[in-house]
Specification:
Blueprint: H1 2-24, H2 45-60, H3 64-68, H4 71-83, H5 87-95, H6 105-119, H7 134-149, H8 156-162, H9 166-175, H10 179-189, H11 192-208, H12 213-223, H13 226-235, H14 239-251, E1 263-264, E2 273-274, H15 291-298
Antiparallel strand pairs: 1-2
Length: 299
């Protein structure tokens, strides 16, 4: 029995010593590799859409009476579905409002009819985007302009989306200060030049109104505006970060803005803006060298 106890004691002690040696001594046993996940981005489209869907679920759990008592909340609740492209749920939400419960019943009826028609439309085979007929697009623009003249600017958002005018809808949301809704619609529907221009306007707001240098830099990188992102870091007094960003762009082979992104003046962010068609081909040059790198090359 004593021998068995000694063997058990030695076995437990050896196991504990062995475990401790693995925990504290890196020389024994291979080191475990850290799991590799998705790339961390300062602005991520998938994360933006996931957050928008999560907010929608939270609001669906609330009582409908909360939104019917406030027209602004009811408007935003409807816009949550529209910017995600869920026209069917937006129509169902509007139809659930009885005339005596909504002071804007006829306005909502117009939106309901437009979204219902768009929900039954088939997207284009190439772009997979809803595109209204010429008459529908013209009607959406005219009605939106008339509504804006009487102070109902947000009416243009569902009308434009129902006609496939997503870039115009994003512009209206940004003008009204609904930047998060505009970001959700951008992540859902915009591509190419339209996406880059929307993100560039958002970066201007984040930098100047919120003072968020890193947020603006991340949005500019997502938009493909690499020179503007470098300029933001330099103007913020972060030359080391700017040099590291420039080196990362070179290592990734992104030394010139991708075709389709907007070009801006590097003197001051947002002072001038033009589409790629207006910019000569000679301006699509590599990113400007950092001052420290220029001095090193001269030496």
């Amino acid at each position: 029995q004593q021998q068995q106890k000694q063997q058990q004691h030695s076995a437990h002690g050896g196991h504990a010593h062995k475990s401790g040696s693995h925990a504290h001594d890196g020389s024994e046993g291979p080191l475990r590799q850290a799991p590799r996940g998705l790339a961390v981005k300062l602005w991520d489209e998938d994360l933006t859409l996931a957050e928008a869907q999560e907010h929608t679920m939270w609001h669906e759990a609330l009582s409908r009476a909360v939104f019917e008592e406030d027209e602004a909340l009811q408007e935003k609740r409807m816009l949550e579905y529209v910017v995600l492209g869920d026209f069917q749920t937006a129509v169902a939400f509007l139809l659930a409002s009885t005339p005596e419960k909504s002071a804007r019943y006829y306005r909502d009826a117009l939106v309901t009819t437009a979204l219902a028609a768009a929900a039954n439309a088939r997207p284009e085979a190439t772009t997979q985007r809803l595109m209204g007929a010429p008459m529908q697009i013209k009607a959406a623009k005219v009605v939106s302009a008339h509504a804006s003249s009487v102070g109902d600017t947000l009416l243009a958002v569902p009308l434009h989306c129902s006609a496939g005018l997503y870039a115009e809808a994003v512009g209206v949301l940004q003008e009204c200060g609904l930047w998060r809704y505009a970001a959700h619609l951008t992540a859902h529907a915009l591509t190419g030049v339209e996406r880059a221009e929307s993100l560039h306007r958002w970066a201007q707001y984040v930098l100047r109104a919120e003072g968020n240098t890193w947020g603006a830099t991340g949005i500019l990188v997502a938009a493909g505006c690499l020179r503007e992102a470098l300029q933001v870091l330099l103007e913020a007094g972060l030359p080391d970060c700017a040099a590291a960003f420039f080196a990362a762009c070179q290592a990734a082979g992104l030394t010139s803005p991708p075709h389709g992104g907007p070009q801006t003046s590097t003197a001051a962010m947002g002072t001038t803006h033009s589409s790629p068609a207006d910019v000569p081909a000679a301006q699509t040059t590599p990113l400007p060298h950092h001052p420290n790198q220029q001095q090193q090359q001269q030496q």
